[in-house]
Amino acid sequence: MNTPIVFWQAVAAVPLLTLMTLVPLLAMLAVVFAKPIYSVRLAFAGALLNVLLSIYLLLIFDSETPGLHLAEHFQLLGMNYRVGVDGTNILFIPLTAILGLLALVYTLITRHRNDRLFIACLLAYQGILIGAFAALNTLQFWFWCLLELVPVVLLTVFAGTGKQRNQVVKSVLQYWLSGLAMSLAGFVLLSYGLAQNGLDLSFDWLTLKHHNLAIPNETLIFILLFFGFAIRMPLFPFHAWLPLLAEHGTAASAAIFLTGLKLGIYALIRFILPLVPGAAEQWVHFVVDLGLIGIFYGALLALMQINMRRLLAFAVISHTGMLAIGVFSFNDFALEGSILLSIAYGLATAGMLFSIGLIYERTRTSFLPRLGGLFETNSTIALLFLISALSTMVMPGTPGFDAAHLLIEGTIEEHGWYIAIAILLGNVLGAAFLLWAFQRLFIAHAKRIVQPYGSVHHPVVKERIIAVTICGLLIGTGFYTTPWLKYIDQEAKEIGEHYPEHHSHHMNGPHHD
């Protein structure tokens, strides 16, 4: 069955997706080569323009029509350049743009406000992520993922806070390059599978999707792609690089990096479910087992941390297990829940990271035993942390609530009550370590007296911009998730048509309004 395609000329004034990729990259070049006095203004102009373009993207996207929208397709240097949006990636692109702008606002509060390399790396990261989320050619997607290493390494080496930054970079490169090697091998085998069936060699996602029925080595391709993406997510036991990077990196880079972590989940949905559905069905129990171990492993280790950044890193590992189970539940309820929960977690964890970063700027520590009693003097930061934490706990009134409800419903249909109850227990543990961290940070009396770093003056207005934006988005979307689910709905049903036969009855149940 052919996927309907709506090209950008039919609905937009400009090739929007390519423009949104290029704007932050051009702003990065402007920051590097312009006079220092203009660099911050140019950075903000680029980031703000991308947020406005992402709003325009959401407004012109037709959620009632299935298929690819705003598609662009041409030959470039012998490669098939194809980008487009559908329900799978439509929400990740605005999330990247918004977090990119907030990271710049946060940077103005920190010691990096005049660091042109730092600001240029943030802009580059944003452009690379949007390019990856929009890519509909497997080599194109892989190339963006490879490029992502550049800002990550530069930000860690030149702007990180730990003393072991070089070891951290070495660890990240070992994990990421092995993951990239596996995913590239999987993509190449997919393309050679077409050639063995008498078709032209192609890395184009649409071509691979329409001719995936007789691809040889399907199990090997699944293993290569899944393990490659699992490192990127990061799913247990491929997670060891994340706590290291969170501990030694910077809060601003970590906030955008969180959206980058969602690339792994997105890649499962985009490249594994439609392209190798038979192998995905065979390996479903293995993935669910890894997800369950990850949920409890991440939550229990988070409870044992005294460094807030490591605590949040293990929280991400715990949540990744839940999302992986949702993706491999093979029905549209769980798939919609996984995509929406990825967005909610990305925004909420970014809110907590920003609050930890702001505390670090004032106290020069992120160790829980050295902190406490911060609520009275830092109520804005406390509110940002609390609402972000509540959203991560999937409380009613936050976008995570409806998303988790869909994910659990889909999990019960496919895997039964035991798996669903295990996910809920993991979420209870998540609530425990986040509320415990909030109590130790903001409510409990400080065990040590920490002298605030630098001046007593703090840029309260910029802090409030970050807090109001993230809290407003979480609460606003939490009380009214229907429009966001409509964006995802058609694509979830379309992917469902590719599921193995005995799962198809899940697709015919009543759907949400």
Question: Can you offer a commentary on this structure?
Answer:
The structure is a single chain. With 513 residues, the protein is mainly alpha-helical. The protein is built from 20 helices and 3 strands. The protein has helices at 16-33, 36-60, 92-109, 116-134, 138-147, 149-159, 165-196, 205-210, 218-232, 241-248, 251-272, 277-282, 284-303, 308-327, 332-363, 379-392, 399-415, 417-443, 460-479, 482-496; strands at 5-7, 68-76, 79-85. The chain is globular, with a radius of gyration of 22 Å. The two termini are 27 Å apart.
Give the topology.
Blueprint (H helix, E strand, L loop, with lengths): L4 E3 L8 H18 L2 H25 L7 E9 L2 E7 L6 H18 L6 H19 L3 H10 L1 H11 L5 H32 L8 H6 L7 H15 L8 H8 L2 H22 L4 H6 L1 H20 L4 H20 L4 H32 L15 H14 L6 H17 L1 H27 L16 H20 L2 H15 L17
Parallel strand pairs: 1-2
Antiparallel strand pairs: 2-3
- Tertiary shape: globular
User: How far is the N terminus from the C terminus?
Assistant: 27 Å
**How many beta-strand elements?**
3
Give the biggest beta sheet.
3 strands, mixed
Oligomer: single chain
| N-to-C SSE string, H for helix and E for strand | EHHEEHHHHHHHHHHHHHHHHHH
Q: Give the mean pLDDT.
A: 80
Strand content: under 5%
Helix content: 55-70%
Strand order in space, largest sheet: 1-2-3
Count of helical stretches: 20
**Stretches with pLDDT under 50, minimum 5 residues:** 451-457, 504-513
Structural class computed from helices and strand pairing: mainly alpha
Radius of gyration of CA atoms, rounded to a whole number: 22 Å
